[in-house]
Amino acid sequence: MLFPSSKSLGGDRRIVVTGAGVVTALGAGWKINAAGFRAGRTAIRPVTLFDVARQRTKIAAEIDLPTTLPRTRLAEKSLRRINRAGRMLLLAAHEAWTQSGWQAEENLPIILGTTSGEMLLGQDYLEQAINAPRRLKQQATRVAYYQVQRQGLDLSDAFGFQGPITIIANACASGTNAIGHAFEMLRSGRAEKVLTGGYDALCHLTFAGFDSLQALAPAPCRPFDAERNGLTLGEGAAVLTLETLAGAHRRGAEILGEIIGYGATTDTHHLTQPHPEGNAALAAMNAACASAGILPAQIDYLNAHGTATPQNDATEAAAINRWAGDDTKNLAVSSTKASIGHLLGAAGAVEAVVCLMALRESWLPPEPGLNQIDPACRFPVVCQPVDRKIQTALSNSFGFGGANASLIFRRWA
Amino acid sequence: MSRIFIHGLGAVSPAGWGVDALRAALDKNLPLPVQTLARPGWNKPVTVRPVPPPAARPAFFAHARLRRASAMSQHTVAAALEALGPDAIRVQAGELRLGIIVCMMAGGVAYSRRFYEEVLRDPATASPLIFPETVFNAPASHLGAYLNSPVANYTLVGDEGTFLQGLALAADWLGEGRADGCVVVGAEEMDWIVADAVRLFQRETVYAAGAGAVYLNRSPAAAIELAAITDSFTYTQKQGRLAAVQQMALQLPAGAASELLCISESKAFAQPHWPGRRLTPKPVLGEAFVASAAWQCVAAGDALRREEFTAANVSIVGVNQQAIGARLQRTNLL
Q1: Residue-wise pLDDT tens digits, B105-148
Q2: Residue A205 scores a pLDDT above 60
């Protein structure tokens, strides 16, 4: 039963990551992404997926998707129907699943975050319905496969398990909320394992939307730069297999890292603009620390939301300064959106994987293209590759609508 | 185990604004009148059941966040405020920590369609006022802003059963002390693009729109208790829809003559031998996906609140994701 839970509630279980899959414009897989983030590579380039001739901005971090998908339980016909976002999700999930060593089983929950799922199919549906309304060919398929629950169902079928599918659509915090929700389910004893993550593909509707808001930078974004002038969109997916430490030990599983805290709050200031003092961001970071039972001074690295819009970064810098207080100068901060753009609903999930990489491999991801750090930042922004052993990392995600969320990870040693 | 109680219900539906209007329509048990909605390229309009205008303009329409918001956001706020009753003021005053969960399947389609039409005409002139309203969580954000609630605010997307997943999530938040109360809203929006899409699958279905809300709190001073929510039985290659429905039914009580069974569709209800009364709101109201599921819960809760039944099973057989059920019961019988 979902309520009352048949599982024993209570107990402070430790939650670990035993599989992580990631697909970004840097490439598909942990290894190539880790190399890219560690070196501070950028994968931002001219948009080829749709016509941007009439847009102010003409760049994004597009993925070169592999032509074939990994072998799963999905039939060829089903695979052919999976569109761009679903393909990214399946690639990331396959990597995480393989790494975890999980087997098909009953009642394995899936919790995913996305802002728009297969909006590319939604666009095709809208365009045909508007421009050729009497032509119905493929429209039913587009409707069926556009819906976000379809991508969750495809994962269930691909790996042969079943369980509840929960899709959280909290704008750009969706991926972090999904992982945080999974973490809370496990910690409270409502599940033993959860497959979780986030995904979003580039599409014209979203690109034009951010362009209409004049939120897109004409050149690759420069988070926390004094002369930053907007964000760069990207696309991708990341999936984590989360389970209890006891369960992972029983299986003899390799542990990639530990999730120790999660906080989620709401900024009621404006639909698209954060409160200038970053009150909700501060509250989310404090809530994550309280959940983890640690102090801000114990965080070694902060993966910022850092979109590179003037407002977001100013607000986030103010919130970090207040949150870290006297320890601000010791806190290494960077936004990996400088490398792969803003992945919207996938951002928090991919940035969670970046934190795991940094913790596991002992480096900090630098920001390419950073010229002059905004003096509002009292913290050091990582702008050159750095090898450093760190124990804890915090990842921030803030979304349209005021969804603010923070996750805290700990090195597994 | 933490007990959870239903402290309020709210509805905006083709029957009108408020639970009273919903009840009156369901009591008559006659399909509500339909309206037509023009669709480009077709001479024959599509038949729908939209929400009628409110009898009086709600005061919240004047709020800065809601003046230009979508109909879906306005319906979400109206249903939530009705469910919250006087506790809305306590939330606004910072005296009650309110979790907000808004559930939907199609989401803010009207503004999405309008925005993409503008993009197709000329992306350089697409309106920056419309785009932010296209995101799934815009209604939840507006509700949170109106109530000035800084607590966690989630938007869940999926088929009809998502509303009960939302109730279960709210129960978790309450049980873990993350919020003092939780309002869960199911909402969908009227637009020809969705009405047309529905007809691709079920030609006779009349698309409807609106919102339903349930307000949960741990205080036992309430007429109804949320007794149970079954597992979500997902439709997969291994487990088809019928098997999922049967699994869900096994987790619900078999019922008694004094109990109500509120079902999402007459062809696939989970408990064919139910000894009590059955209620199927869809033939009266139309198909509004997650809003329909919310209306089922509101109708069942309202019937218990009026002491017409001692308990109710709510059976939701979603269109493409899950079968899931809930059990509500009167508290004055305990």
Answers
A1: 999 999 999 999 999 999 999 999 999 999 999 999 999 999 99
A2: yes
CA–centroid distance for A117 within its chain: 13
Domain count, chain A: 1
User: Chain B closest CA to A151's CA: distance in Å?
Assistant: 11
Q: Classify residue A8 by its DSSP letter.
A: P
CATH number, residue A338: 3.40.47.10
Q: Is A190's pLDDT higher than 60?
A: yes
Identify residue B144 by its one-letter amino acid code: G
Known catalytic membership, residue A270: no
Closest to A369 measured CA to CA, from A342, A343, A338: A338
Chain A residue nearest residue B1, CA to CA: A4
Q: Considering A94, A204, A275, A342, which one is annotated as catalytic?
A: A342
Q: Decide if pLDDT at A9 tops 60.
A: no
Residue A1 domain flag? no
Q: Tell me the ipTM for this assembly.
A: 0.98
What's the mean pLDDT in A345-368? Answer: 98
CB B157 within 8 A of CB B109: no
Residues present in chain A in total = 413
Asked if the structure places residue A140 within a domain, the reply is: yes
Structure tokens that stand for A92 in this block? 């990331």
Domain that holds residue A106: 15-410
Domains and CATH numbers, chain B: 4-217 (3.40.47.10), 224-333 (no CATH)
Instruction: Report the gap between the CA of B45 and the closest CA in chain A (Å).
Output: 12
- Could you tell me if residue A5 is inside a domain? no
| A269 among known catalytic residues | no
Q: Burial level of A160, CB count in 10 A (0-12/13-18/19+)?
A: middle
